[in-house]
Amino acid sequence: MGNPRQSARTTAGQPQLAFVSRPRSEKPKVVVRVNFGVFTGREATPAEIDRLAEWLLDRVDHVTIVSEAHHEIAARSEAAVHQVRIEVTGADDAPDSLEQWLVDRAELWARECIAERKPSTS
Questions:
Q1: Cα–Cα distance measured from residue 67 to residue 46, given in angstroms and rounded to the nearest whole number
Q2: pTM score over 0.85
């Protein structure tokens, strides 16, 4: 494994794997996080994320959904959880009304995902 502090010039001709991401000019109006992995023990599937997007597009024109493994690491501790992050920009709704609607939809979606994958007890 190479030295991570090496100059980018040493990898000339190779595709760039890491890059600086500049903040978007329009910040999300509302951001909702769903602690999906805490309750499901797994990541959200692409089909589940597509379903969530369909439900959200009933009210907003554009949504960004990020499925991520969120790690918090310190010298003596480490925690990891799978989260789904929902970002909405440019919505016409009042932020408080939109926030509550997004949280309600995300809760319903997560509960359906949990119920669909529950092991049967027969």
A1: 9
A2: no
30 closest CA partner among 84, 93, 111, 82: 93
Structural domains of the chain in order of their starting residue, each with its CATH number? 25-116 (3.30.70)
Q: What is the pLDDT of residues 37-94, one digit of tens each?
A: 998 999 999 999 999 999 999 899 999 999 999 899 999 999 999 999 999 987 777 7
Residue 108 neighbours by CB under 8 Å, 6+ apart: 55
Number of neighbouring beta carbons within 10 Å of residue 20: 4
118 and 39 Cβ atoms separated by less than 8 Å = no
Dist. CA 68–CA 84, nearest whole Å:
6
